[in-house]
Task: inverse folding
């Protein structure tokens, strides 16, 4: 299974929405969230639209300091690139969204912001934007703000973010740090609403699928069991299970490509011939 196809099986975006809500939970009652928001009658969607309900909202978390009333967010899953074309697409989304107001300036031009989020720093994109005169400055670790651009824009690099403040975004990676995962598990104990708990489970499920070896190790540690019992870790366990299955599928495909018979592959991965055939039919 190629890395691109493997990435497509993990539902990163719903987990990203959940992680973003967790980071903004201090202001959750003052914000509205619209995943995959349709920007026109034809299929054209922003990954996430965040609307401030009131004009005097002060976002506490640093990822929202640049926010205006209407905020377009573009998220790249681990392994996805981010190019200058993506930047201009976000600008186009913001402009198109402004034009959807029911009357002139129903959505004011100075009430828009753009946020682009990626795991690693997009060097080529930033170099090209600098060449075009669109500069960014570091606001704090992992957060870069535009300078003198007509729509306030920011780049968030999740693996550069401060761990203590942004664990939910940092663990949405195929290379999650064990300390971040443990910290997030403990952090979830402070979540009291059903919405927060559901968002935490969504993040744990995807992160656990992508990093199941780390999650299995954590689950085996006696000092973490109490935390896992307290958070009712359905998402945690589901992520590990899905991650283990995907690892077995990759092994089966590699063995098949190497010429091994399907019945022998089934014995190697300790499953049925029918399941191996199903895996291979999907990935051929």
Result:
């Amino acid at each position: 299974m190629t890395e691109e196809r493997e990435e497509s099986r993990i539902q990163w975006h719903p987990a990203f929405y959940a992680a973003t809500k967790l980071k903004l939970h201090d202001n959750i009652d003052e914000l509205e969230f619209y995943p995959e928001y349709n920007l026109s009658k034809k299929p054209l969607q922003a990954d996430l639209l965040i609307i401030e309900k009131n004009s005097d909202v002060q976002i506490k978390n640093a990822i929202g300091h640049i926010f205006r009333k209407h905020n377009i967010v573009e998220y790249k899953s681990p392994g996805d690139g981010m190019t200058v074309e993506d930047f201009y697409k976000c600008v186009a989304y913001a402009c198109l969204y402004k034009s959807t107001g029911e009357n002139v300036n129903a959505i004011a031009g100075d009430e828009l912001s753009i946020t682009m989020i990626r795991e690693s720093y997009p060097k080529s994109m930033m170099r090209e934007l600098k060449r075009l005169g669109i500069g960014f400055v570091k606001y704090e670790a992992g957060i870069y703000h535009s300078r003198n651009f007509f729509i306030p824009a920011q780049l968030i690099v999740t693996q550069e973010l401060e761990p203590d403040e942004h664990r939910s975004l940092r663990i949405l990676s195929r290379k999650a740090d064990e300390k971040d995962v443990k910290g997030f598990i403990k952090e979830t104990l402070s979540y009291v609403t059903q919405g927060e708990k559901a968002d935490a489970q969504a993040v744990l499920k995807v992160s656990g699928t992508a990093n199941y070896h780390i999650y299995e190790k954590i689950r085996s540690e006696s000092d973490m069991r109490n935390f896992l019992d307290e958070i009712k870790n359905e998402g945690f366990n589901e992520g590990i299970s899905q991650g283990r299955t995907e690892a077995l599928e990759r092994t089966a495909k590699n063995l098949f490509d190497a010429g091994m018979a399907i019945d022998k592959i089934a014995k190697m991965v300790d499953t049925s011939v029918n399941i191996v055939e199903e895996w291979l039919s999907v990935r051929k």
Q: What stands out?
A: The chain has two domains: 3-175, 176-284.
